[in-house]
Write a structure and sequence with these properties.
A hairpin with a 4-residue loop joins strand 2 and strand 3. The chain is α+β, with helices and mostly antiparallel strands. A four-stranded antiparallel β-sheet has the order 2-3-1-4. The protein has one domain: Alpha-Beta Plaits (2-Layer Sandwich), CATH 3.30.70.100. It contains two helices and four strands; from the N terminus they run βαββαβ.
């Protein structure tokens, strides 16, 4: 099994399942606990989460944090 690529920031995550401000708080809290994440800004209306990094965590770590918070990561795009 190969390692997932490291993310270079900032990135915008496309996240399914966010329906309210509490969802934004949950995903922001989960992602802010990932080592190397500097800031997180979720927008449930847009279904997106902007993440900035101090370090470059593997994509799999970000994906797992989103899934552990109860949401589906649909895509990762630049800034």
């Amino acid at each position: 099994m190969s390692e997932s690529p490291a993310l270079r920031g900032p990135v915008t995550l496309s996240v399914a399942g966010m329906t309210c401000g509490t969802c934004e708080d949950s995903i922001q809290r989960a992602l802010s606990m990932v080592p190397g994440v500097r800031s997180v800004q979720a927008d449930y209306r847009a279904g997106s989460v902007r993440v900035e990094f101090d370090a470059h965590p593997p994509e799999a770590v970000i994906r797992q944090a989103v899934e552990d918070a109860g949401y589906d990561l649909e895509g990762i795009g630049a800034g």
